[in-house]
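Weekly modeling sync, notes
Attendees: S.R. (lead), two postdocs, one rotation student

Agenda item 3: backlog of single-chain predictions. S.R. asked that every request posted to the team notebook include the full sequence so nobody has to chase files. The rotation student volunteered to paste the first one in as an example of the format we agreed on. Action items at the bottom.

Example entry:
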Amino acid sequence: MPKAPTVPFIGTVTGTPQTRFTDSGIAVTRFRLTTVPSEWDAQARQWRDAAPIHHICTVWRDLARNAAESLVDGVEVIVHGRITGARDGDIMVSADEIGVSLRARIAYTAASLPPQATLVHAPHVPTPPPPAVQPAASTPQPAPGPGQPPRWWEQKRAEGWSRQT
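Predicted structure, as returned to the notebook:
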C-alpha cells in the first residue's frame, strides 16, 4: 500500500505537547494543533474566520525530542504530515516536519542565537552562575518506569542535545 502524500497544516499549538517512550526507548510526542481557515462572506464582502479544525499530531524519534523541547502552547507552526484518520472530531496527523511560523515572532536556533551582547532590542538580563557540580551518586539509579524518559534523555538534554558524528 503506498504511503499517503504529505500535506501542510498551519495552525496554533494548543496545550502542552506530551512525550511518551516506547518499551525500546523511542520518543513519541503528541500535540494538538488548531487551524482556523478563512472563508469568503459574499454578503458582507469580506473574509471571516470559519470553524476551527482540530488536529492531533504525532511525531517520533528526533523530531519528537525536538518538538518536546521547542513547542509551547500558543506558538504558530507549520506541519507537514499525513492524515492517518479521524477520531472524536479531531484529525489525526503523522507529522514528518515541523517549523515555527515566523509571521508573528523571531525564532532563534542554537546555531543562530547571537551572543547576548549583540541583542539590540533585548534588555540586559544577568546570567546566573552555573550550578555547582554535584558529586556522582554511588548508588545506581533505578530504571525508568513505562512511559518515562530513558536515562539517556535527561543526559542528552543536560548536554544540550549535541549531535553525534
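Discussion: group reviewed the output briefly. The longest helix spans residues 61-70.
Action items: rotation student to repeat for the remaining queue; S.R. to check formatting next week.
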